[in-house]
Amino acid sequence: MKKSIASLVMMAPFAWACGASVPPPTQPMADAQAAERSAAELGANNEPSAQLSLKLAQDQIEMARKAMADGDNKRAEALLLRAKADAELAVAQAREKNAKGEGQKAAEDAAAQKATNVGQGAVK
After folding, report:
1. pLDDT tens digits for 110-124?
2. Structural domains counted in the chain
């Protein structure tokens, strides 16, 4: 009997530790929101594929807020990790569109400069 009481007393702290709750995912929330803002500032709303990724990120951030309000911080953290990944994808997609536009403009400028040079007799 004394052995079982001693075992119970010794195991109580471990049982209590298993029931500890997951802390609120404040840093993942900040990371996801920062990535979302970056995507919006880069013009993700103007590119259809980036717009979809940004919308997914926004929806997941909202679902994470609700999960945190319900005390389900583990689910909220998982949602925020997905939201950050989707927002970073939107950033990459927006940058790709911007890079393509700048590349096309550079090619047009080079062609115009070449035409000017040929017209002035600098290049044949």
Report:
1. 777 777 777 777 766
2. 1
User: Could you tell me which of 39, 35, 22, 40 has the C-alpha nearest to residue 76?
Assistant: 22
Determine, yes or no, domain membership for 28.
no
CA 92 to CA 94: how far, in whole Å?
5
Task: List the domain range (segments joined by +) for residue 103.
Answer: 35-118
Is the pLDDT at 61 greater than 90, yes or no?
yes
> What is the rounded distance in angstroms from the CA atom of residue 89 to the CA atom of residue 6?
55
Count of helices and strands (H, E) across the chain: 4, 0
Cα separation, 56 vs 36, whole angstroms: 10
For residue 7, pLDDT over 90 is answered with no
| Angstrom distance (rounded) from CA 5 to CA 72 | 34
User: Which two tokens mark 90?
Assistant: 């939107």
